[in-house]
Amino acid sequence: MTPMVSIRPLPTAVRCLRTQRLVRPCPAAALGGRRGFATAAHVQETGAKYDGAAVPSVAKASLQQRKEAIRNAKPFSEFLTDSFNREHDYLRISITERCNLRCLYCMPEEGVPLSPAAHMLTTPEIFYLSSLFVSQGVTKIRLTGGEPTVRRDIVPLMQSIGSLRSHGLRELALTTNGISLHRKLDAMVEAGLTGVNLSLDTLDPFQFEIMTRRKGFDAVMKSIDRILEMKKLGANIKLKVNCVVMRGLNERDIIPFVELGREKDIEVRFIEYMPFGGNKWSQGKMISFQEMLDIIRVKYPALRQVPGHKNDTSKTFEVPGFVGKVGFISSMTNDFCGTCNRLRITSDGNLKVCLHGNDEVSLRDLLRKDNQGEPIDQEAFERIKKIEMDRRDGLLSDETVLGWGQREQELLQVIGAAVKRKAEKHADMGDLANMQNRPMILIGG
Protein backbone atom coordinates (compact mmCIF):
# COMPACT_ATOMS: atom_id res chain seq x y z
CA MET A 1 0.00 0.00 0.00
CA THR A 2 1.33 3.44 -0.92
CA PRO A 3 1.67 5.58 2.20
CA MET A 4 -0.61 8.58 2.53
CA VAL A 5 1.54 11.59 1.83
CA SER A 6 1.03 15.23 1.08
CA ILE A 7 3.04 16.45 -1.86
CA ARG A 8 3.69 20.02 -2.88
CA PRO A 9 4.37 20.89 -6.52
CA LEU A 10 7.91 20.47 -7.76
CA PRO A 11 8.52 24.00 -9.03
CA THR A 12 12.12 23.35 -10.01
CA ALA A 13 11.24 20.42 -12.23
CA VAL A 14 8.32 22.27 -13.77
CA ARG A 15 10.42 25.38 -14.22
CA CYS A 16 13.14 23.37 -15.85
CA LEU A 17 10.61 22.09 -18.35
CA ARG A 18 8.86 25.38 -18.86
CA THR A 19 12.02 26.98 -20.17
CA GLN A 20 11.97 24.43 -22.99
CA ARG A 21 8.26 23.87 -23.53
CA LEU A 22 6.52 24.48 -26.82
CA VAL A 23 3.14 25.48 -25.45
CA ARG A 24 0.98 28.09 -27.11
CA PRO A 25 0.26 30.76 -24.47
CA CYS A 26 -3.15 32.39 -24.38
CA PRO A 27 -3.14 36.20 -24.74
CA ALA A 28 -4.81 36.26 -21.34
CA ALA A 29 -1.43 35.31 -19.88
CA ALA A 30 -0.23 38.77 -20.86
CA LEU A 31 -2.90 40.14 -18.55
CA GLY A 32 -1.45 38.28 -15.60
CA GLY A 33 -4.23 35.73 -15.27
CA ARG A 34 -4.03 31.93 -15.31
CA ARG A 35 -3.32 30.40 -18.69
CA GLY A 36 -6.45 30.91 -20.74
CA PHE A 37 -8.14 33.16 -18.17
CA ALA A 38 -7.88 36.84 -17.31
CA THR A 39 -9.20 37.91 -13.93
CA ALA A 40 -11.27 41.05 -13.50
CA ALA A 41 -8.58 42.58 -11.31
CA HIS A 42 -5.88 41.97 -13.89
CA VAL A 43 -8.07 43.34 -16.67
CA GLN A 44 -8.65 46.50 -14.71
CA GLU A 45 -4.96 46.84 -13.87
CA THR A 46 -3.95 46.56 -17.50
CA GLY A 47 -6.69 48.78 -18.86
CA ALA A 48 -8.48 46.21 -20.97
CA LYS A 49 -12.24 46.53 -21.35
CA TYR A 50 -14.20 45.27 -18.38
CA ASP A 51 -17.94 45.73 -17.90
CA GLY A 52 -17.99 48.06 -20.88
CA ALA A 53 -15.37 50.45 -19.48
CA ALA A 54 -11.63 50.88 -19.87
CA VAL A 55 -8.77 52.50 -18.01
CA PRO A 56 -7.49 54.91 -20.67
CA SER A 57 -4.08 55.53 -19.10
CA VAL A 58 -2.88 51.97 -19.76
CA ALA A 59 -5.23 50.78 -22.50
CA LYS A 60 -2.66 51.21 -25.27
CA ALA A 61 0.02 49.44 -23.26
CA SER A 62 -2.36 46.55 -22.61
CA LEU A 63 -3.21 46.24 -26.29
CA GLN A 64 0.47 46.24 -27.15
CA GLN A 65 1.11 43.49 -24.58
CA ARG A 66 -1.61 41.36 -26.08
CA LYS A 67 -0.33 41.86 -29.60
CA GLU A 68 3.16 40.94 -28.41
CA ALA A 69 1.87 37.76 -26.76
CA ILE A 70 0.08 36.72 -29.94
CA ARG A 71 3.11 37.51 -32.08
CA ASN A 72 5.39 35.43 -29.84
CA ALA A 73 2.96 32.53 -29.44
CA LYS A 74 4.57 29.16 -30.10
CA PRO A 75 2.99 25.91 -31.31
CA PHE A 76 1.47 23.41 -28.91
CA SER A 77 4.02 20.98 -27.45
CA GLU A 78 5.64 18.99 -30.23
CA PHE A 79 5.95 16.03 -27.87
CA LEU A 80 2.15 15.82 -27.52
CA THR A 81 1.30 16.52 -31.17
CA ASP A 82 0.96 13.50 -33.44
CA SER A 83 1.69 13.16 -37.16
CA PHE A 84 -1.93 14.09 -37.94
CA ASN A 85 -1.61 17.38 -36.02
CA ARG A 86 -3.85 16.21 -33.17
CA GLU A 87 -2.89 18.03 -29.98
CA HIS A 88 -3.21 15.87 -26.87
CA ASP A 89 -4.15 18.05 -23.91
CA TYR A 90 -6.16 15.41 -22.02
CA LEU A 91 -4.45 12.71 -19.93
CA ARG A 92 -6.21 9.74 -18.32
CA ILE A 93 -4.27 8.01 -15.52
CA SER A 94 -5.30 4.64 -14.12
CA ILE A 95 -4.33 4.57 -10.45
CA THR A 96 -5.28 0.97 -9.59
CA GLU A 97 -6.13 -2.36 -11.19
CA ARG A 98 -8.46 -3.29 -8.34
CA CYS A 99 -12.23 -2.96 -8.49
CA ASN A 100 -15.14 -3.75 -6.19
CA LEU A 101 -17.40 -4.78 -9.12
CA ARG A 102 -17.04 -7.40 -11.86
CA CYS A 103 -18.87 -5.81 -14.80
CA LEU A 104 -19.53 -8.11 -17.77
CA TYR A 105 -18.03 -5.82 -20.41
CA CYS A 106 -15.00 -4.79 -18.36
CA MET A 107 -13.34 -8.01 -17.23
CA PRO A 108 -13.54 -11.80 -17.59
CA GLU A 109 -15.81 -13.67 -15.19
CA GLU A 110 -12.78 -15.33 -13.57
CA GLY A 111 -11.23 -11.93 -12.93
CA VAL A 112 -7.75 -10.81 -13.95
CA PRO A 113 -4.35 -11.51 -12.37
CA LEU A 114 -3.23 -8.38 -10.56
CA SER A 115 0.24 -7.00 -11.10
CA PRO A 116 2.71 -7.11 -8.19
CA ALA A 117 2.52 -4.02 -5.99
CA ALA A 118 6.06 -3.01 -6.97
CA HIS A 119 4.93 -2.70 -10.59
CA MET A 120 2.27 -0.10 -9.76
CA LEU A 121 3.00 3.59 -10.00
CA THR A 122 3.49 5.24 -6.62
CA THR A 123 1.82 8.50 -5.65
CA PRO A 124 5.03 10.53 -6.15
CA GLU A 125 5.48 8.92 -9.58
CA ILE A 126 1.91 9.73 -10.61
CA PHE A 127 2.36 13.29 -9.42
CA TYR A 128 5.64 13.68 -11.26
CA LEU A 129 4.21 12.35 -14.54
CA SER A 130 1.19 14.63 -14.10
CA SER A 131 3.55 17.59 -13.64
CA LEU A 132 5.49 16.58 -16.73
CA PHE A 133 2.39 16.38 -18.94
CA VAL A 134 0.91 19.60 -17.56
CA SER A 135 4.19 21.37 -18.28
CA GLN A 136 3.71 20.37 -21.93
CA GLY A 137 0.16 21.69 -22.21
CA VAL A 138 -2.17 19.07 -20.71
CA THR A 139 -5.10 20.95 -19.19
CA LYS A 140 -7.30 18.02 -18.12
CA ILE A 141 -6.41 14.94 -16.06
CA ARG A 142 -8.85 12.13 -15.33
CA LEU A 143 -8.16 9.48 -12.70
CA THR A 144 -9.50 6.04 -13.60
CA GLY A 145 -9.03 2.39 -12.64
CA GLY A 146 -9.98 -0.33 -11.88
CA GLU A 147 -12.06 1.59 -9.41
CA PRO A 148 -9.99 4.62 -8.34
CA THR A 149 -11.85 5.18 -5.07
CA VAL A 150 -10.50 1.89 -3.66
CA ARG A 151 -7.01 3.43 -3.62
CA ARG A 152 -6.58 4.46 0.00
CA ASP A 153 -4.54 7.58 -0.67
CA ILE A 154 -6.71 8.89 -3.51
CA VAL A 155 -7.58 12.13 -1.69
CA PRO A 156 -3.94 13.12 -0.97
CA LEU A 157 -3.13 12.13 -4.56
CA MET A 158 -5.88 14.41 -5.87
CA GLN A 159 -4.65 17.20 -3.62
CA SER A 160 -1.17 16.96 -5.10
CA ILE A 161 -2.43 16.88 -8.69
CA GLY A 162 -4.89 19.68 -7.89
CA SER A 163 -1.92 21.86 -6.94
CA LEU A 164 -0.95 21.88 -10.62
CA ARG A 165 -3.77 24.32 -11.34
CA SER A 166 -1.25 27.12 -10.89
CA HIS A 167 0.74 25.57 -13.74
CA GLY A 168 -2.11 25.27 -16.24
CA LEU A 169 -4.28 22.34 -15.16
CA ARG A 170 -7.93 23.33 -15.56
CA GLU A 171 -9.88 20.11 -14.93
CA LEU A 172 -9.38 17.22 -12.53
CA ALA A 173 -11.95 14.49 -13.18
CA LEU A 174 -12.76 11.01 -11.96
CA THR A 175 -14.30 7.92 -13.56
CA THR A 176 -15.94 5.72 -10.91
CA ASN A 177 -18.61 3.10 -10.34
CA GLY A 178 -19.87 5.19 -7.43
CA ILE A 179 -19.95 2.40 -4.84
CA SER A 180 -17.88 4.30 -2.26
CA LEU A 181 -17.76 7.74 -3.86
CA HIS A 182 -20.31 9.32 -1.50
CA ARG A 183 -17.95 8.74 1.45
CA LYS A 184 -15.06 10.63 -0.14
CA LEU A 185 -16.78 13.13 -2.43
CA ASP A 186 -16.65 16.19 -0.16
CA ALA A 187 -12.91 15.81 0.41
CA MET A 188 -12.35 15.25 -3.32
CA VAL A 189 -14.20 18.43 -4.26
CA GLU A 190 -12.06 20.34 -1.75
CA ALA A 191 -9.00 18.79 -3.40
CA GLY A 192 -10.03 20.20 -6.78
CA LEU A 193 -12.36 17.61 -8.35
CA THR A 194 -14.31 19.22 -11.21
CA GLY A 195 -16.07 16.31 -12.90
CA VAL A 196 -17.38 12.79 -12.31
CA ASN A 197 -18.16 10.17 -14.93
CA LEU A 198 -20.16 7.55 -13.06
CA SER A 199 -20.68 4.12 -14.61
CA LEU A 200 -24.19 2.75 -14.16
CA ASP A 201 -25.74 0.35 -16.68
CA THR A 202 -29.23 -0.16 -15.27
CA LEU A 203 -31.78 1.43 -12.95
CA ASP A 204 -33.05 -1.98 -11.88
CA PRO A 205 -31.33 -3.21 -8.65
CA PHE A 206 -31.76 -6.87 -9.65
CA GLN A 207 -30.34 -6.29 -13.13
CA PHE A 208 -27.49 -4.35 -11.52
CA GLU A 209 -26.37 -7.52 -9.70
CA ILE A 210 -26.51 -9.51 -12.95
CA MET A 211 -24.38 -7.00 -14.88
CA THR A 212 -21.86 -6.23 -12.14
CA ARG A 213 -21.87 -9.66 -10.40
CA ARG A 214 -22.05 -7.72 -7.13
CA LYS A 215 -24.47 -5.78 -4.90
CA GLY A 216 -24.22 -2.02 -4.51
CA PHE A 217 -27.02 -0.30 -6.43
CA ASP A 218 -28.21 1.74 -3.43
CA ALA A 219 -24.68 3.01 -2.76
CA VAL A 220 -24.33 4.17 -6.37
CA MET A 221 -27.61 6.07 -6.22
CA LYS A 222 -26.50 7.63 -2.94
CA SER A 223 -23.38 8.94 -4.68
CA ILE A 224 -25.43 10.40 -7.55
CA ASP A 225 -27.78 12.11 -5.09
CA ARG A 226 -24.83 13.54 -3.15
CA ILE A 227 -23.27 15.00 -6.31
CA LEU A 228 -26.57 16.63 -7.29
CA GLU A 229 -26.97 17.98 -3.76
CA MET A 230 -23.48 19.51 -3.86
CA LYS A 231 -24.19 21.06 -7.26
CA LYS A 232 -27.27 22.75 -5.82
CA LEU A 233 -25.09 24.08 -3.01
CA GLY A 234 -22.77 25.65 -5.58
CA ALA A 235 -20.08 23.02 -6.13
CA ASN A 236 -18.55 23.34 -9.60
CA ILE A 237 -18.72 19.68 -10.53
CA LYS A 238 -20.02 18.10 -13.73
CA LEU A 239 -21.87 14.79 -13.58
CA LYS A 240 -22.13 12.32 -16.44
CA VAL A 241 -23.61 8.84 -16.09
CA ASN A 242 -22.11 6.28 -18.49
CA CYS A 243 -24.26 3.32 -19.56
CA VAL A 244 -22.87 0.49 -21.71
CA VAL A 245 -25.84 -0.90 -23.63
CA MET A 246 -25.88 -4.65 -24.36
CA ARG A 247 -28.61 -6.39 -26.32
CA GLY A 248 -30.68 -8.76 -24.23
CA LEU A 249 -29.49 -7.26 -20.97
CA ASN A 250 -30.30 -3.60 -20.50
CA GLU A 251 -31.75 -2.02 -23.64
CA ARG A 252 -35.04 -1.65 -21.78
CA ASP A 253 -33.26 0.81 -19.47
CA ILE A 254 -32.64 3.33 -22.26
CA ILE A 255 -35.93 5.22 -21.81
CA PRO A 256 -35.78 5.24 -17.96
CA PHE A 257 -32.25 6.68 -18.18
CA VAL A 258 -33.45 9.41 -20.55
CA GLU A 259 -36.26 10.22 -18.13
CA LEU A 260 -33.75 10.47 -15.27
CA GLY A 261 -32.90 13.85 -16.75
CA ARG A 262 -36.46 15.17 -16.70
CA GLU A 263 -35.79 17.10 -13.49
CA LYS A 264 -32.17 16.23 -12.68
CA ASP A 265 -29.08 17.96 -14.05
CA ILE A 266 -27.53 14.77 -15.41
CA GLU A 267 -26.09 13.86 -18.78
CA VAL A 268 -26.62 10.15 -19.43
CA ARG A 269 -24.27 8.80 -22.09
CA PHE A 270 -25.08 5.55 -23.84
CA ILE A 271 -21.97 3.65 -24.96
CA GLU A 272 -21.76 1.10 -27.73
CA TYR A 273 -20.50 -2.24 -26.43
CA MET A 274 -16.78 -2.51 -27.30
CA PRO A 275 -14.42 -5.51 -27.53
CA PHE A 276 -11.70 -5.90 -24.90
CA GLY A 277 -9.73 -8.85 -23.63
CA GLY A 278 -11.98 -11.51 -22.06
CA ASN A 279 -15.33 -9.71 -22.33
CA LYS A 280 -16.82 -12.11 -24.93
CA TRP A 281 -17.78 -9.31 -27.30
CA SER A 282 -19.92 -10.07 -30.33
CA GLN A 283 -21.48 -7.76 -32.87
CA GLY A 284 -24.87 -9.27 -32.10
CA LYS A 285 -24.70 -8.00 -28.51
CA MET A 286 -23.92 -4.46 -29.65
CA ILE A 287 -26.71 -1.93 -30.05
CA SER A 288 -25.63 0.86 -32.37
CA PHE A 289 -25.93 4.56 -31.71
CA GLN A 290 -28.53 4.88 -34.47
CA GLU A 291 -30.67 2.07 -33.04
CA MET A 292 -30.57 3.65 -29.57
CA LEU A 293 -31.54 6.97 -31.11
CA ASP A 294 -34.51 5.34 -32.86
CA ILE A 295 -35.67 3.70 -29.61
CA ILE A 296 -35.72 7.07 -27.83
CA ARG A 297 -37.45 8.90 -30.68
CA VAL A 298 -40.38 6.48 -30.61
CA LYS A 299 -41.38 8.00 -27.25
CA TYR A 300 -39.65 11.38 -27.58
CA PRO A 301 -39.75 12.37 -31.27
CA ALA A 302 -38.65 15.92 -30.44
CA LEU A 303 -35.21 14.68 -29.33
CA ARG A 304 -32.69 17.03 -30.92
CA GLN A 305 -28.92 17.30 -31.14
CA VAL A 306 -27.13 20.17 -29.43
CA PRO A 307 -23.77 21.72 -30.43
CA GLY A 308 -20.67 20.18 -28.90
CA HIS A 309 -16.92 20.69 -28.69
CA LYS A 310 -14.64 19.42 -31.43
CA ASN A 311 -12.91 17.01 -29.02
CA ASP A 312 -16.11 15.52 -27.59
CA THR A 313 -16.33 11.75 -27.60
CA SER A 314 -20.08 11.98 -27.18
CA LYS A 315 -22.82 13.24 -29.49
CA THR A 316 -25.15 15.21 -27.22
CA PHE A 317 -28.92 15.46 -27.51
CA GLU A 318 -31.76 16.90 -25.44
CA VAL A 319 -35.47 16.39 -24.98
CA PRO A 320 -37.18 19.82 -24.95
CA GLY A 321 -38.26 20.64 -21.41
CA PHE A 322 -35.86 18.19 -19.75
CA VAL A 323 -33.13 19.55 -17.45
CA GLY A 324 -30.62 16.81 -18.27
CA LYS A 325 -29.10 15.74 -21.56
CA VAL A 326 -28.48 12.50 -23.44
CA GLY A 327 -25.20 11.52 -25.10
CA PHE A 328 -24.01 8.69 -27.34
CA ILE A 329 -20.46 7.33 -27.54
CA SER A 330 -20.34 5.58 -30.89
CA SER A 331 -16.82 4.13 -30.92
CA MET A 332 -17.87 1.13 -33.04
CA THR A 333 -20.16 2.59 -35.69
CA ASN A 334 -19.07 6.23 -35.93
CA ASP A 335 -15.65 6.81 -34.41
CA PHE A 336 -14.25 10.18 -33.35
CA CYS A 337 -10.59 9.37 -33.98
CA GLY A 338 -10.04 12.43 -36.16
CA THR A 339 -10.33 14.78 -33.18
CA CYS A 340 -8.90 12.53 -30.45
CA ASN A 341 -6.92 14.51 -27.87
CA ARG A 342 -6.50 11.75 -25.25
CA LEU A 343 -3.53 9.83 -23.92
CA ARG A 344 -3.59 7.12 -21.25
CA ILE A 345 -1.18 5.94 -18.59
CA THR A 346 -1.94 2.50 -17.17
CA SER A 347 -1.60 1.78 -13.47
CA ASP A 348 1.63 -0.12 -14.14
CA GLY A 349 3.12 2.90 -15.87
CA ASN A 350 2.65 2.24 -19.60
CA LEU A 351 1.74 5.01 -22.01
CA LYS A 352 -1.13 3.99 -24.29
CA VAL A 353 -1.87 6.43 -27.10
CA CYS A 354 -5.11 4.75 -28.23
CA LEU A 355 -7.74 2.94 -26.16
CA HIS A 356 -8.19 0.34 -28.89
CA GLY A 357 -4.53 0.05 -29.85
CA ASN A 358 -2.26 -2.57 -28.32
CA ASP A 359 0.98 -0.57 -28.56
CA GLU A 360 2.35 0.50 -25.18
CA VAL A 361 5.61 1.99 -23.92
CA SER A 362 6.81 1.96 -20.32
CA LEU A 363 7.32 5.30 -18.61
CA ARG A 364 7.72 3.62 -15.23
CA ASP A 365 10.93 1.82 -16.16
CA LEU A 366 12.55 4.99 -17.44
CA LEU A 367 11.33 6.95 -14.45
CA ARG A 368 12.99 4.45 -12.09
CA LYS A 369 16.10 3.95 -14.17
CA ASP A 370 18.44 5.71 -11.73
CA ASN A 371 16.65 4.37 -8.67
CA GLN A 372 17.90 0.83 -9.34
CA GLY A 373 14.49 0.07 -10.87
CA GLU A 374 12.82 0.41 -7.48
CA PRO A 375 9.54 2.31 -6.90
CA ILE A 376 10.07 5.98 -6.09
CA ASP A 377 8.55 6.51 -2.66
CA GLN A 378 8.23 9.81 -0.82
CA GLU A 379 11.74 9.62 0.63
CA ALA A 380 13.29 9.00 -2.77
CA PHE A 381 11.15 11.75 -4.27
CA GLU A 382 12.40 14.28 -1.72
CA ARG A 383 15.98 13.21 -2.42
CA ILE A 384 15.44 13.69 -6.14
CA LYS A 385 14.02 17.17 -5.58
CA LYS A 386 17.02 18.14 -3.44
CA ILE A 387 19.49 16.93 -6.07
CA GLU A 388 17.62 18.80 -8.81
CA MET A 389 17.57 22.00 -6.73
CA ASP A 390 21.31 21.71 -6.17
CA ARG A 391 21.86 21.13 -9.88
CA ARG A 392 19.77 24.18 -10.73
CA ASP A 393 21.75 26.31 -8.28
CA GLY A 394 25.02 25.23 -9.85
CA LEU A 395 26.16 23.11 -6.92
CA LEU A 396 26.22 19.96 -9.06
CA SER A 397 26.90 19.21 -12.67
CA ASP A 398 24.21 17.97 -15.04
CA GLU A 399 25.58 14.45 -14.57
CA THR A 400 23.70 13.78 -11.34
CA VAL A 401 22.31 10.53 -10.08
CA LEU A 402 18.51 10.87 -9.99
CA GLY A 403 18.66 14.36 -11.50
CA TRP A 404 15.40 15.17 -13.24
CA GLY A 405 16.94 17.32 -15.96
CA GLN A 406 18.20 14.51 -18.16
CA ARG A 407 15.37 12.19 -17.13
CA GLU A 408 12.76 14.72 -18.19
CA GLN A 409 14.24 14.95 -21.66
CA GLU A 410 14.44 11.17 -22.03
CA LEU A 411 10.82 10.80 -20.90
CA LEU A 412 9.67 13.49 -23.30
CA GLN A 413 11.51 11.87 -26.18
CA VAL A 414 9.87 8.52 -25.45
CA ILE A 415 6.45 10.16 -25.07
CA GLY A 416 6.90 12.17 -28.26
CA ALA A 417 7.95 9.12 -30.27
CA ALA A 418 4.93 7.14 -29.03
CA VAL A 419 2.54 9.97 -29.85
CA LYS A 420 4.03 10.29 -33.35
CA ARG A 421 3.34 6.58 -33.93
CA LYS A 422 -0.36 7.00 -33.13
CA ALA A 423 -2.48 5.72 -36.01
CA GLU A 424 -4.94 7.95 -37.83
CA LYS A 425 -7.81 5.82 -36.50
CA HIS A 426 -8.31 2.60 -34.62
CA ALA A 427 -9.08 -0.66 -36.40
CA ASP A 428 -12.54 -1.44 -37.76
CA MET A 429 -15.11 -3.35 -35.74
CA GLY A 430 -14.30 -6.77 -37.15
CA ASP A 431 -10.55 -6.34 -36.70
CA LEU A 432 -10.92 -5.03 -33.14
CA ALA A 433 -12.77 -8.18 -32.16
CA ASN A 434 -9.75 -10.27 -33.18
CA MET A 435 -7.01 -8.03 -31.77
CA GLN A 436 -5.16 -8.77 -28.56
CA ASN A 437 -5.75 -5.97 -26.06
CA ARG A 438 -5.84 -5.70 -22.29
CA PRO A 439 -9.13 -6.20 -20.46
CA MET A 440 -10.73 -2.81 -19.94
CA ILE A 441 -10.05 -2.92 -16.21
CA LEU A 442 -6.29 -3.07 -16.87
CA ILE A 443 -6.39 -0.13 -19.30
CA GLY A 444 -8.40 2.38 -17.32
CA GLY A 445 -11.95 3.43 -18.18
UniProtKB/TrEMBL annotation:
CDD domains tied to this protein: Radical_SAM (cd01335), Twitch_MoaA (cd21117)
EC number: 4.1.99.22
Keywords assigned: 4Fe-4S, GTP-binding, Iron, Iron-sulfur, Lyase, Metal-binding, Mitochondrion, Molybdenum cofactor biosynthesis, Nucleotide-binding, S-adenosyl-L-methionine
One Pfam family this sequence matches: Radical_SAM
Name of the featured protein: GTP 3',8-cyclase
PANTHER family found in the cross-reference section: MOLYBDENUM COFACTOR BIOSYNTHESIS PROTEIN 1 (PTHR22960:SF0), MOLYBDOPTERIN COFACTOR SYNTHESIS PROTEIN A (PTHR22960)
Highest taxon above the source species: Eukaryota
Cofactor or coenzyme needed: [4Fe-4S] cluster
Segments crossing the lipid bilayer: none
InterPro entries membership: Aldolase_TIM, Elp3/MiaA/NifB-like_rSAM, MoaA, MoaA-like, MoaA_NifB_PqqE_Fe-S-bd_CS, MoaA_twitch, MoCo_biosynth_MoaA/MoaC, rSAM
Radical SAM core domain location: 83-302
SMART domains noted in UniProt: Elp3
Pathway recorded for this protein: Cofactor biosynthesis; molybdopterin biosynthesis
Reactions catalysed: GTP + AH2 + S-adenosyl-L-methionine = (8S)-3',8-cyclo-7,8-dihydroguanosine 5'-triphosphate + 5'-deoxyadenosine + L-methionine + A + H(+)
